[in-house]
Amino acid sequence: METNDAGTGTGTETAAGTDAAATGPDSGEAPELTEAPELAEIPVEAHILPVAELHLHIEGTLEPELIFALAERNGIKLPYADLDELRSRYEFTDLQSFLDLYYANMAVLRTEQDFADMTRAYLSRAALAGVRHAEIMLDPQAHLSRGVSLETCVNGVASVLAGSQEEFGISTLLIAAFLRDLSEDSALEVLEQLLALDAPIAGIGLDSAEVGNPPAKFQRLFARAKDAGLHRIAHAGEEGPPSYIIDALDLLDVERIDHGIRCMEDPDLVERLVDELMPLTVCPLSNVRLRAVDTLAEHPLPAMLAAGLNVSVNSDDPAYFGGYVDDNFAQLKSVIGLSEFDCVRMAANSIRSSFATDERKAELLAELAASGV
Ligand code: ES4
Ligand code: ZN
Predict the structure, then answer these.
(1) Is 283 a domain residue?
(2) Of 115, 206, 337, 364, which has fewest CB within 10 angstroms of its CB?
(3) Distance from residue 207's CA to the centre of ligand 2 (Å)
(4) Which of 238, 359, 363, 367 is catalytic?
(5) Which residue puts its alpha carbon closest to atom 5 of ligand 1?
(6) Ligand 2 center to residue 370 CA distance, Å?
């Protein structure tokens, strides 16, 4: 598709470097960052579909090269000698083993410009993947605990999202995700601060270590978010049991489930999710890398589609899990033999399940229909 050609080259090269440095408050001092990694080598798929990315942690888009570039700019000494040593840590045994590295690498994010550069790098890469609308999670508590203010992380990301449609052709929304291994009081405090700041968030999410931190722990948080007119999503059924999905629906009144793959263990729940058209934001490469499933060939996605579930394909933490949305689709096609029809169906699901305006959804669905697949 044309978007591939249009996306490579100049827009990409300036993404993490020139633009960001030129617009930052101290543009004279901030050294330019290196080009976003390996963009020139990204394989151009025969059919890159226009999609909405609904499950994406912005901190999970920090590529190793950007981690090193930001560390250098901020004078931070990393506990890895070089890129290869960092990359050698990307062998995960479960969710927690990933989260340990994910939180550790956030140490390089100190200034608004760091958050802006990370966001710009994601959007430039996502545009190549066919992403036309993105709902982006940010983990404010993971930054507050390091002494980085709410304003710094939110403004850094939001300043780039504000111009994402003009700059990258991607409409965006920001979602504040809360760490479920911390207390509900901590989450409530941060939510109140976000509301007091009038932060441009469209909704809240729930992420981090799932097992042992069930939805019941966050009922007041989600009630407050609903009261404030915010959308509500939660990770459930990634590592946790099907009962966590049920509780996210019943106790948190969520509008989407992130992951949800373990619903397949409970036929009554599957029937309910189908009846309610409940969106499940599935992340196949993430599930393989975190060992929620043994291999991509054994991923439940085909069974979920066959059951009539409202599933979409998402990248979760693409810098850590081996690829962006296009990579997820490409591997689903090559490894599972997923049909073009199913890919289009999931692209349409992603658009319909987004919190975009009806106008934007109609525009993207028309674009999908016209994509010639
Ligand atoms: C996450 Cl894959 C995943 N699961 C739960 N929490 C997360 N935070 C970032 N990625
Ligand atoms: Zn996730």
Answers:
(1) yes
(2) 337
(3) 6
(4) 238
(5) 208
(6) 30
* Ligand nearest to the CA of residue 139, numbered in listed order: 1
List the residue whose alpha carbon is closest to atom 3 of ligand 1.
Answer: 208
Low-confidence ranges of the chain (pLDDT < 50): 1-28, 34, 36-45
Q: How far is CA 372 from the centre of its chain?
A: 27
Was 235 annotated as part of a binding site? yes
Domains identified in the chain, total number: 1
Task: Return the ligand 1 atom nearest residue 139 CA.
Answer: 8
CA of 37 to the centre of ligand 2 (A): 22
Instruction: Give 8-17's long-range contacts (Cβ < 8 A, gap of 24+).
Output: 8/39, 8/40, 8/42, 8/128, 11/124, 11/127, 11/167, 11/168, 12/36, 12/39, 12/124, 12/125, 12/128, 15/120, 15/121, 15/123, 15/124, 16/66, 16/69, 16/117, 16/120, 16/121, 16/124
| Predicted local confidence at residue 100, as pLDDT | 98
Question: Do the domain assignments include residue 28?
Answer: no
- Which of 93, 95, 136, when mutated, tests ligand 1's pocket best, judged by the most ligand atoms within 8 Å of its CB? 95
Give the CATH number, domain containing residue 171. Answer: 3.20.20.140
CB 229 within 8 A of CB 199: no
User: 3-class DSSP state for residue 372?
Assistant: coil
Digit-coded pLDDT (tens) for 118-174: 999 999 999 999 999 999 999 999 999 999 999 999 999 999 999 999 999 999 999
The domain in which residue 345 lies consists of 2-19+46-369
238 is catalytic: yes
What does the radius of gyration of the chain's CA atoms come to, in whole angstroms?
A: 19
| Proximal ligand: closest to the CA of 237 | 1
Length of the chain: 373
Ligand 1 atom 7, closest CA: 208
- Which amino acid, residue 34? T
In a domain, 84, yes or no: yes
Asked if the structure places residue 30 within a domain, the reply is no
